[in-house]
Amino acid sequence: MSKRSVRISAVLLAILVGSVMFLRMELRASGRAADAPGYWGFSTSNLDKTCKPCDDFFQFAMGGWMKNNPIPPEYSTWGSFTVLADKNQQALRQILETSGKADAPAGSSERKIGDYYASCMDAAAIDAAGTKPIDPLLLRISEMKNVADLEATAARLQQQGFSVLFRFSSNQDPKDSTQVIAGALQGGLGLPERDYYLRADEKSKKLREDYARHVAKMLELLGDSPERSAAEAATVMTIETSLAKASMSNVDLRDPHQTYHKMKIAEFQSLTPNFPWGAYLRDVGHRDLEELNVAQPDFFTALDSQLTATSLDDWKTYFRWHVVDSAAPALQEKFVNEDFDFRGRILTGAKEIQPRWKRCVQSTDRNLGEALGQLYVQKYFPPEAKARALEMVHNLVAALRDDLQTLPWMGPQTRGQAAAKLAAFAVKIGYPDKWRDYSALKIDRAGYLQNFERAAEFDLQRRLNKIGKPVDRSEWGMSPPTVNAYNNSSMNEIVFPAGIMQPPFYDAQADDAVNYGGMGAVIGHEITHGFDDHGSQFDAQGNLKDWWQPEDQKNFKERAQCVSDQFDGYVVDGDLHENGKLVLGESIADLGGLTISYAAYEKSLEGKPRPPDKDGFTPEQRFFLGWAQVWGANERLEFARLMANTNPHPLPRFRGNGPLSNMAEFARAFGCKKGDPMVREKICKIW
């Protein structure tokens, strides 16, 4: 059961496309409506005129907005992405409340999303149920007598969405993108990622102490004495620390070669002799499975040793913790509040928990996203929006195709392969052509946690049923209302959900320069992901395959290292810097996306009269203001640290300035000179 209420990547991932829709974002504090005379898509009230653009362009462009838009208490960050996501939630709330009242046919998608949302909103019933919804699971854990029982219990918990020991799912075979294979992956941690258990700095030590207190408090809420719960928390920390030590880092996880270890089940069993894989595969419904990808063999070797080195009573404690941890948002208010105190207040800096309706909207979207999304696009996403977005994507693809022909560091053979990959790009806009079938998922109003568990089991089974079958390239990895987008290297596709397709990312009433600086740059971002440090390892069919000539690959890695070094230098807090290797893919995509979008904008002006200045800004300057307003955001320090430690996306202020400081086009637009902070001494340039 995935319990996290906020997709962090959805807050900071670069994207945009679209058309004018509902909930148009107001022009911030300017008092000028989008259809008012002089409107060009950017409000001069966003500016901080005390800052020079060549000193800190992000502060110059968005400092006024950041000053006038403090973070609401229930959020850890507040900016263009979160403002839009918040407004989208209001639209989804209307759909869900209407669906809950409508006399929709039993078993219909509309009935299911209405019932799911209603069960989540029924706080009185949830509080009255107490811990009864998880009591059967806790009883099963208490009755474990041996490793065989542990295996069977782990399999059942994983089916119901509880994260214990490891993860088991399906994915495309990285080296045969036409097929789906089973995958076993590291997991089982309660903190965001492995290094939270291993860092020796004082802030990390303090956070581990806070986590241990949180574990103890949650187990105390289950009925354990304070003394016992404190000892149990120490047990959880010992087990999870051992798993963390065996886990791969976030940086290493970005290397697809390091996470590909295809092997026969018998070989995997020899690697982990203490865990009965035959019984496990039977319990999850795949007893005849012959092979799988073991993403992190060292993790499973360590876990196997831990199975016998750790007492069964300690494993029971670990399982109990993960059940209550994952279930907490669907339990009584005391569990919800304690969960927020650590996951929200301590980890992200949020001051207040979000209102129940927002949490229930998010939960419905996570678990029945395409059922909810089908109603969303019917109401808010007209067909012409899809056509306009597709046209913009094609323009950006053409710009990169032209760029490939003139790159001085790439030879003809690699250039031909890159062009073939670009030509093979699949583009998905708005919503799937084929909607997910939820007919096998039972949803009713009787119990929120039961609905949560059923949805998790439905989704896992849906994934596991793909094993051994051809890849369905029509599937989506995000729901239509999501304020996000992605590039899937294995599919060689770029995907733009309907939820992001509105201002400030794209506005039909805005100046072309602003739209190219916003929408164009981030469409370019997603396209360029196909050629970043990760995506460049996959060919036109989505196979993990080396298609580069050695000299060209050497040249690319040298240029990528320049970007990595640049972001290593950005200070987040004290001695915490951005991790250049972790954010390398996003930073390459930002730089490439802006570069090709600027070229596309310049090409769009050919043969036309030069656009006039607006509010004193040239068309070129307005392009970069369009980029900056996408990233305008305030974030709490705790959230900034969390992002820097765990997320492959740099913080907004570094994304706003970072790529611009490498671009001669930006320097010319604002008259920046060598020695100015916004002109790097060592220029990074790839595309």
Describe this structure in words.
With 687 residues, this protein is an alpha+beta fold. It is 52% helix and 7% strand. It is built from 28 helices and eleven strands. The chain has helices at 8-12, 57-68, 80-101, 109-121, 123-129, 135-142, 147-159, 195-198, 202-221, 226-246, 250-253, 265-271, 277-283, 297-309, 312-327, 333-348, 356-367, 369-380, 383-404, 412-423, 448-464, 512-528, 550-568, 584-604, 619-631, 637-646, 652-657, 664-670; strands at 77-79, 166-173, 176-186, 262-264, 291-294, 426-430, 486-488, 493-497, 571-573, 576-577, 633-635. The strands form four sheets. Strands 2-3-5-4 form a four-stranded mixed sheet. Strands 6-8-7 form a three-stranded mixed sheet, with helices on one face. It has a two-stranded antiparallel sheet with strand order 1-11. Helix 9 crosses helix 10 (226-246). The two termini are 41 Å apart.
Mind sketching the topology for me?
Layout: H1 8-12, H2 57-68, E1 77-79, H3 80-101, H4 109-121, H5 123-129, H6 135-142, H7 147-159, E2 166-173, E3 176-186, H8 195-198, H9 202-221, H10 226-246, H11 250-253, E4 262-264, H12 265-271, H13 277-283, E5 291-294, H14 297-309, H15 312-327, H16 333-348, H17 356-367, H18 369-380, H19 383-404, H20 412-423, E6 426-430, H21 448-464, E7 486-488, E8 493-497, H22 512-528, H23 550-568, E9 571-573, E10 576-577, H24 584-604, H25 619-631, E11 633-635, H26 637-646, H27 652-657, H28 664-670
Parallel strand pairs: 3-5, 6-8
Antiparallel strand pairs: 1-11, 2-3, 4-5, 7-8, 9-10
Helix pairs in contact: 2-25, 3-4, 3-17, 4-17, 6-15, 7-15, 9-10, 9-16, 10-14, 10-15, 17-18, 19-20, 19-22, 19-24, 22-24, 22-25
